[in-house]
Amino acid sequence: MHMTIDTGNTGFMLLCSSLVMLMTPGLAFFYGGLVGRRNVLSIMMQSFVSMGWTTVLWWAFGFSMCFSGDLKSGTDFHGIIGNFHWAFLSGITLDTPSAINASIPMIVFCAYQMMFAIITPALITGAFANRVTFKAYMLFLTFWLIFVYFPFVHMIWGGGILATWGVLDFAGGIVVHNIAGIAALASVLYVGRRKVEDSGPHSIPLVALGTGLLWFGWYGFNAGSEFRVDAVTAVAFLNTDIAASFGAIAWLCLDWMQFRKPRFVGLLTGAVAGLATITPAAGYVSPATACLIGLIAGVVCYFAVALKNKLRWDDALDVWGVHGVGGFLGIVLCGIFATTAFNPGGVDGLLRGNSHFFLVELAAVAISSAWAFVFTYGMLWLIDRITPVKVHDTAEVEGLDQALHGETAYIEGI
């Protein structure tokens, strides 16, 4: 059998894969700008090393754990993880069609989903900035992908148990942002506060560059999750931009009211909050709803960050407040506002009389939050028995770039 490739869809998905890949360097710049001068390289490297190591794991068994087998046919493990039939991509040929859209080769689908796997654990790194050893981070990256990310991809997108419940997550509200944000909170509570706090972002232009790359890449993240080019793809694209813009302006206004000055970092953070929150709903809601989602994201995430500051959690770069809360919010809002008027292949939400869908979304995000928190906390405890998770106080004072990597981003005194 020779599969019929739709060149338009396939070309579009390759482009989207490239866009999502660009988000990881974008995240590195975003985080790199937010930390102090002596910790820039260590946090950027945590994103970049995920591009290398996650790809290795994905090729070896990650893709197979996520997408081979399903609960309906009984070919996976209890609807929680897939089987290992596609380990090392064995059996995937030029003619293997993608399960989601048969006009796209499986190898393109594999590449696209790999880019999601790369950025998700990298999101967490902003929470424990400046205080985790590289060895511990590599173990964290490995275990977290295997026991948190891969199972949730399978459960929701790979035909696993949550998919059979009717859970919908367009581009990763649970699968990416919620579990990463909640894992970030668990990490912060386990690792504790920094001894040496940054005096503020060392380079706001770097943060702006990172935000621009993330925003640009997010079109591939959300619009690409339709896996074909149609009107829903266009709606997801537009909704992404609208929510980012409304989130940015909402955060800017709140910042302006509180500090009497419109602050650039606030605008940039609000955009990312809007992007994270629209992600699960991007292809299921109307553009008018996207305005509302962006607005809610900007306001709720702003106050989540304020709460974090009040509780003195040292989530250095607000991963929980932006991604954890944003992802949670997005799933709940998808459950309320989803409409078949803007996605005939989707479902209607609570506002259109479907309370069952709303409750299923709520249950799924509660389960994902609980598992991500408990497992991440326990895993860090376990890693600590193997190798110290937290860097030595002297390394914190010296800065992790020099202490852990023997490199510096800037020559002192210039």
Concise synopsis of the structure shown:
With 414 residues, this protein is an all-alpha fold. The chain is 66% helix and 0% strand. It has one domain: Ammonium transporter fold (Orthogonal Bundle).
From the structure above, extract its key features.
mainly alpha; 414 residues; single chain; Ammonium transporter fold; 66% helix
Helix-strand category? mainly alpha
Judging by the overall fold, what is the CATH architecture? Answer: Orthogonal Bundle
Helix content: 55-70%
User: Average pLDDT value?
Assistant: 94
Please count the beta strands (DSSP E, at least 2 residues each): 0
What would you give as the CATH superfamily? Ammonium transporter AmtB like domains
Main pleated-sheet profile? none
Q: Span from first to last CA?
A: 64 Å
* Order of H and E elements: HHHHHHHHHHHHHH
The name CATH uses for the topology is: Ammonium transporter fold
Helical stretch tally: 14
Q: In what range is the share of β-strand residues?
A: under 5%
Q: What oligomeric arrangement do these chains adopt?
A: single chain
User: What is the domain total for the residues?
Assistant: 1
Report the CATH C-level class: Mainly Alpha
What does this structure look like?
The chain has a single domain, classed as Ammonium transporter fold, CATH 1.10.3430.10. It is mainly α and 414 residues long. The relative contact order is 0.15. It has 14 helices and no strands. α2 packs across α3, α3 runs parallel beside α6 and α4 packs antiparallel against α12.
